[in-house]
């Protein structure tokens, strides 16, 4: 019936079979893939236990590109900045930093093992640092991996979470990117002297760069708004403690009443608005906060409006995901491959259970946004069950799927796995006047 | 699948690294071709292969049926490629479609475009059936749906292909 089409398909297939196979490069890729997988297993454990902070959501979705004339001019006035534009133009706060000359060009290099590491520029405040760098070599460094990265102020390590992308680089012998540090506590620096250590590994060989740099800009202090206001939303008590505005981000600290009968999950539209209705929303591409669902106190990060001087400011949220505390998790017996308990709302369906793996299916929770549904579980003895891999796919389709693999060694049945996100919402909306 | 391959697959599922390497060696050609069919260039296809090795290593213990190992790997590859293309599209939406360096004759280009116009699931189905000669029965078992459903979906996909090609008007039908 479809002979014509089938014949064309067959022809395509035959062509495909004629392409040359780069055997050696594929063999290398197998080794590299295995190495990466092993280090991922290791790294994940390390970061979770070491920092005991949870980045609430990380995402890298980009939907539109807009460039304001002010931003374009500011970029043009900083030598070399155009190479980094794509790293900043999706965060209003970062754009304003560039426009207000708070980005500081550094241009300090170190050469080691035939590689050159250059700190091109830095943005730093009490909450973190964005380090723009270039790493280049006369040979390909596509297979390089990043090992230990640290930032020191007067030889004291500034502890926080470290984030970097692995963007598709234009040249195989060069990497141009930024590394983001988010400090767990706001830091008071003892001087303007900093040093970054950057350890990379290639072909089983480590190279450590140690690059000192001095900040000449005056470090900007945060503006603190003490709010201390308790609001009630759908019967749940939420108190907004403090809102601190820094150049890189706005940090909102929130505390939840232990008597609440709902577990508060994600705030989908937490934001700050000024008198003209201009909005600063959550950090879209990076660490969006500290403190997991089990924490009574959490800190959320919003894009910064530090360089604006609005007359009035309002802190707002409407769409708050929540589940009743007694059904805010999955209870699974992996031995019997049985789902024992789940939320009664039926919005997320468990479709498969294997010995240390399960799969869920759900209609997309939020447009252009994908949530990590789980971060870890608890076994029957109350011990942590690690989730080394969670992959989500199908974004943009009718359904999304998450495949969750638990560390088999930790499983003692039944295992309780709390949700970090769930499409069930509190009724109501909250507006608090900041100024 | 012969007995030896089946044994490699089973041992790899149990977590033996040497068997996992053998398994990837065994399927590297078919995985590379799959990547190439979607991504159309060597660089991206090799990168995809490395990523699939990475993903497979982390998830191989979840495979239930060692005899379907090859299809399991191909599906990871197709998912990766489709995600990758989607991401890429977001960035280059205003530019022209990338040049296709591999297909030169027009009929095949048309077929390429026609396949690209299908939904994700349909693309995968067509690829498994016509490029990998995967049996309907195997597709049905892997997708956990009846064989009849696979057939009717396949039928629908072929129909979409025909419609696309007819609308383009470049192919005549009997």
Account of the 3D structure:
The complex is a heterodimer of chains A (435) and B (174). Helices cover 15% and strands 41% of the residues of chain A. Chain A contains five helices and 29 strands. Chain A starts with a helix and ends with a strand. Chain A has 435 residues and is of the alpha+beta class. In chain A, the strands form eight sheets. In chain A, strands 1-2-3-7-6 form a five-stranded antiparallel sheet, with no helix packed on it. Chain A folds into three domains: 20-64 and 102-214, Immunoglobulin-like; 223-321 and 425-433, Sandwich (Immunoglobulin-like), CATH 2.60.40.1640; 329-418, no CATH class. By secondary structure, chain B is mainly α. Chain B is 74% helix and 0% strand. Chain B has helices at 3-13, 17-39, 42-59, 69-92, 106-116, 120-131, 136-143, 147-168. The longest helix of chain B has 24 residues, at 69-92. Chain B is globular and about 50 Å long. Chains A and B meet through helix 1, helix 2 and strand 26 of A and helix 2, helix 3, helix 4, helix 5 and helix 6 of B. Chain A: It comes from Psychrobacillus mangrovi. Chain A: InterPro entries: DUF4179, DUF5643. Chain A: Keywords: Membrane, Transmembrane, Transmembrane helix.
């Amino acid at each position: 019936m479809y002979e014509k089409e089938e014949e064309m398909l067959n022809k395509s297939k035959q062509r495909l079979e004629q392409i040359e196979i780069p055997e050696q490069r594929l063999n290398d890729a197998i080794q590299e893939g295995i190495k990466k997988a092993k280090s991922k297993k290791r790294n994940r454990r390390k970061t979770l236990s070491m920092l005991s902070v949870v980045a609430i959501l990380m995402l890298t979705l980009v939907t539109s590109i807009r460039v304001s004339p002010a931003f374009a001019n500011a970029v043009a006035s900083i030598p070399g900045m155009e190479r980094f534009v794509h790293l900043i133009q999706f965060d209003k706060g970062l754009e304003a930093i560039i426009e207000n000359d708070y980005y500081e060009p550094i241009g300090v290099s170190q050469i080691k093992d035939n590689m050159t590491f250059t700190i091109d520029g830095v943005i730093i405040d009490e909450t973190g640092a964005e380090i723009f760098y270039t790493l280049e070599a006369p040979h390909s460094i596509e297979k390089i991996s990043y090992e230990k990265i640290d930032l020191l102020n007067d030889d004291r390590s500034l502890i926080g979470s470290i984030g970097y992308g692995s963007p598709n680089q234009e040249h195989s012998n060069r990497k141009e990117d930024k590394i983001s540090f988010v400090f767990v506590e706001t830091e008071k620096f003892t001087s303007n002297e900093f040093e970054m250590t950057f350890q990379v590994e290639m072909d089983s060989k480590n190279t450590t760069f140690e690059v000192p740099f001095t900040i000449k800009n005056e470090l900007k202090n945060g503006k603190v708004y003490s709010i201390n206001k308790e609001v009630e939303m759908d019967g749940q008590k939420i108190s907004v403690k403090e809102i601190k505005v820094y150049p890189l981000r706005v940090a909102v600290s929130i505390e939840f009443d232990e008597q609440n009968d709902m577990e508060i999950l994600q705030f989908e539209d937490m934001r700050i608005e000024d008198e003209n209705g201009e909005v600063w929303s959550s950090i879209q591409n990076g660490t969006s906060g500290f403190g997991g669902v089990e924490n009574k106190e959490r800190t959320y990060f919003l894009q910064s409006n530090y360089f604006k001087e609005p007359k009035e400011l309002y802190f707002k949220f409407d769409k708050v995901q929540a589940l009743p505390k007694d059904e805010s998790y999955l209870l699974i017996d992996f031995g019997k491959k049985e789902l024992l308990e789940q939320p009664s709302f039926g919005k997320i369906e468990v479709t498969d259970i294997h010995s240390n793996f399960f799969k869920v299916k759900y209609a997309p929770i939020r447009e252009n946004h994908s949530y990590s549904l789980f971060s870890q579980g608890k076994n029957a003895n109350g011990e942590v069950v690690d989730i080394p891999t969670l992959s989500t796919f199908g974004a943009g389709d009718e359904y999304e799927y998450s495949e969750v693999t638990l560390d088999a060694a930790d499983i003692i049945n039944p295992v309780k796995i709390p949700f970090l996100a769930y499409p069930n919402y509190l009724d109501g909306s909250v507006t608090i006047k900041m100024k | 699948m012969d007995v030896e391959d089946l044994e490699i697959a089973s041992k790899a599922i149990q977590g033996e690294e040497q068997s996992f390497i053998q398994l990837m060696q065994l399927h590297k050609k078919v995985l590379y071709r799959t990547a190439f069919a979607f991504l159309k260039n060597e660089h991206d296809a090799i990168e995809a292969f490395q990523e699939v090795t990475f993903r497979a290593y982390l998830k191989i213990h979840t495979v239930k049926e060692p005899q379907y190992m090859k299809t399991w790997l191909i599906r990871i590859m197709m998912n990766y490629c489709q995600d990758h293309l989607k991401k890429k599209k977001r960035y280059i939406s205003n530019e022209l479609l990338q040049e296709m360096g591999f297909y030169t004759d027009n009929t095949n280009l048309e077929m390429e475009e026609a396949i690209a116009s299908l939904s994700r699931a349909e693309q995968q189905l067509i690829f498994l059936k016509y490029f990998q000669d995967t049996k309907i029965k195997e597709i049905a078992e892997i997708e956990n749906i009846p064989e009849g459903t696979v057939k009717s979906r396949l039928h629908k996909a072929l129909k979409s292909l025909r419609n696309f090609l007819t609308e383009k008007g470049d192919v005549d039908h009997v």
